[in-house]
Amino acid sequence: MPTPRKKLPAVAVARLRSVLTGFGKNRSSLPFGLGPRVVGTLFGNRRGHVHFAFQRDPNSPPAFLVELATPISGLVREMASGLVRIALECDKLGKLEEDKKGVSQSVRLLEEPVWRTYCNGKKCGFATRREFGDKERKILKAVEPISMGAGVLPGSGGGGADHEADGELMYMRAKFERIVGSRDSEAFYMMNPDSNGAPELSIYLLRV
């Protein structure tokens, strides 16, 4: 028998709905690093995983850079079939955990290292924060002149033999509207001038 698809738990749906109600009330509450309009780049090798980067402007280093467990080919298929909503969720540190680790919950939301990932309600493993290294720098430099669009870069254009061995590099680049609900919730909505409805891609960051 085919394995039934797992739906996003009801508690997670409730959390998402509750934080979304606050986004419209906090459009001007913007922490340092990113403004209300950001540059978003989705990229990955054809046989590799999805990477997301958000930059203040095309020339700045990314304030948020993560690698998802989702293959980029799978995400491309999802986007071709309709709207895509990605929720990245991480945990708050409780008081006991703070005492044990000797740290307080002062980490900015964009700097959290590990996230549970949901794509259109389906659990998709984990996303991890990536350091902005030479490979990522070369990729973002290659697409720097592109304000909006999607395409393919040669394997060698992504930063050396490792990328070439994984095949050509697929990318999509667009402007995103950034809305801060609280210190524990942010949303990024892709801005598409050709679309008259909901954004084709929405990304939610939640700390619960």
TrEMBL record:
InterPro entries: MIZ1-like_pln. GO terms for biological process: hydrotropism. This is Protein MIZU-KUSSEI 1. It comes from Corchorus olitorius. The lineage of its organism: Eukaryota, Viridiplantae, Streptophyta, Embryophyta, Tracheophyta.
